[in-house]
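Q: I'm writing up a methods section and want to include an example of the input and output format. Could you take the sequence below and give the corresponding predicted structure tokens, formatted cleanly so I can copy it straight into the document?
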Amino acid sequence: MEQKELNSMVKKIVSNIMLNNPTTGANGVFTSMNEAVEEAYKAQQNYKNYALEQRRQIVEGIRSGLRPYIEECAKRGVDESKMGRYEDKINKNTLVLDKTPGVEDLSTSAFTGDNGLTLVELSPFGVIGSITPVTNPTETIICNSLGMLAGGNAVVFSPHPSAIETSVWLVKLINRLASEAGAPPNLVTTVDKATLESVDEMMSHPKINMLCITGGTPIVKKGLSSGKKTIGAGAGNPPVIVDETADIEQAAKDIFNGASFDNNMPCIAEKVVLVVEAVADYLLFCLEKENIFKVTDPEDLKKLEKTILNEKGAAHKDFVGKNALHILQQAGVSCGYDPRLIIVETSKEHLFAVEELMMPVLPIVRCKDFDEALENAVVLENNLRHSAMMHSKNVDRLTEAARRIQTTIFVKNAPSYSGIGFGGEGYTTFTIAGPTGEGLTSARSFVRTRRCVLKNGFYIR
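A: Here is the clean output for your methods example:
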């Protein structure tokens, strides 16, 4: 064996030992939030002096270094959280590596004239505190790390308790890859235990300059009340409208693919279908060609309601992200195969339509015409301004719906996930900031805009 190969093998063995080493304080993982923030601050004080090309090399080093771990990211995420589908999480993790923007997202603009030159540049915020969800644990950490580091920041993650082991493992890995690419140690940090106290400490820490929160409405509101600059990616209840001009066969395929993807956990996923009465039967007929289970017995519907809704009428957390067959079995509904999606006809007032279930149960609501479907979509979206979809060949209707619903993402004639670049154009993110208006976040979301003015110089008109 050549010395080069031996060195590479030894390096890999040592890296694997470090990744699986439970000892904290190494590779970005600490026992207290204060330590995590302080060490990230030290790293950023060094990192802020790095050239743009150095940042590029570090981001690309993380991106390329994570590729061999895509399947492990997916497996760890499913195994620990007990949510989602392994094969879909592979696609999601691949997506963030392929389509999360890096330093190329940061552009400089300029004004010149008789009074000289003004530059508008994008500079780091410093240390960013990022709260990540159980629904997309590895995807969000990877996506935010790439964007925040591209912007010249350090990041402290506060992961969801149900994905803490996966998150700690991934933070260690990202630190190792970043260090190999030339980054200072502890540029990405976290804590070894997820607690409410650590969340509060991160939000109030004086060395945290920005908060980025990917989670439900309560945690986003908490961040907004912290007094810090906050990017809030909250909940959604995306409706999908189907009118009589749509390609119904394609609409059925797209709705099935989007609503069943990762067991409907993505906040962008189709949560309720509003179909015009004239084509409702045909849409249901086409949906039944897909791998779905249609609930038709009223008693089965009652069983399903009792199982997946809690005492407050909201989604029962024990069934969020679970497979459709598991849900049916727990509800006592007989099914002889393994469907990816459960569909059921309901009224627009039914809790399945009103609540964001985040599980593969899709309510179908009949509407007399497009106007009623659009009105219902506006109500059921609940002004969350997250995502909505529509299937139609009528450009005027598509335009009207997009204007009325006012969501951050509006997808026309495609599955919901096209809106984050999976089969659609554009970059991706798993932090979609509707409440605070940044939209699909990228590196430029995590920087400050600064103006530099030079009087009577560097203009050549």
